[in-house]
Amino acid sequence: MYHYRKEGYQRRSIRLQGYDYSQEGWYFITICCQDRAHLFGEIINGEMILNEAGQMIESEWLKLKIRFPNIHCHEYVIMPDHFHAILEIIVGTTTIKNTEKLDNETVGSTLVVDHIDGQPQGVAPTTTTTTTTTKTVTVGDIIGAFKSITTVEYIRGVKSLGWPPFNKRLWQRNYYEHIIRNDLAFWRITEYIKNNPKSWEEHQISKKRKK
Questions:
Q1: 171: which residues sit within 8 A by CB, 6+ positions away?
Q2: Which domain CATH number covers 186?
Q3: Are the beta carbons of 151 and 170 closer than 8 angstroms?
Q4: Stated pTM of the model
Q5: What InterPro entries does the annotation carry (predicted)?
Q6: Is position 207 within any domain?
Q7: Is residue 17 predicted with pLDDT exceeding 70?
């Protein structure tokens, strides 16, 4: 659940017991980097300036619509160390194509993470054939795919582009979600997401003044 405070937001990672997370609806999603590492850019004058890694995160988020045709990605923001978005499931089932970039939670492949010279190295799932499966897809399936795909792409950036390495995993193991139950909540959260970079900067300035 989310609670607005002067210094930002606070959440508890709790899934509603018995709730069907494949059903139609809006979901407010937050995913945080492991150790809250600042990997995706910086905020300047209240605006988030994405680096190459942040641009990759944005690209892969928007591509989810291709992998899961029955979803819609509403307002989102990539922050230095976390990601906010409103995800809408339009219908409860979707057609999934088994291609090399789909992750293990979606198609049953395995994401392998080894440690070579102290740096995690990802191996993307591969296949020589394309199969089509119709299944009920949950919020967890979608977020799991996003986290796995972006982890593989980030590792490639570390290896070939010199991106900063991460500690064991790119994202924290869990994610945070809030079920948006009406239009008023939808628009309030939309505004919260839009204003997140400005709020972040104000919070950072306040922290420095207190030191």
A1: 31, 32, 33, 34, 147, 150, 151
A2: 3.30.70.1290
A3: yes
A4: 0.72
A5: RAYT_transposase (IPR052715), Transposase_17 (IPR002686), Transposase_17_sf (IPR036515)
A6: no
A7: no
